[in-house]
Specification:
mainly alpha, 74% helix, globular
């Protein structure tokens, strides 16, 4: 099993962010702090809960989570454009 680090996650998030940036100017939180806190929390959850699951269960959970986040992002973007 490959050992994933927070740095690995943050590097990929930063690469994705450069392609689809979030407008952090209207928020009262620091982008780097928020991203690192969330990455740490998810990595901890992965290491304590998901890592020991069989690959099929883990894949379904991760795809469901990604779908939920994309739908949430979609609706927030629609609200911002109104």
């Amino acid at each position: 099993m490959v050992k994933v680090t927070v740095t690995d996650i943050l590097d990929l998030v930063n690469e994705i962010e450069s392609e689809d940036p979030i407008d952090w100017g209207m928020l009262s939180v620091d982008e780097n702090t928020a991203t690192e806190m969330i990455a740490n929390g998810l990595l901890e959850q992965y290491n304590t809960s998901w890592a020991d699951m069989n690959p099929d269960e883990r894949t379904v959970i991760m795809l469901a989570t990604i779908t939920k986040l994309v739908v949430e992002n979609f609706t927030l973007n629609l609200k911002l454009r109104q």
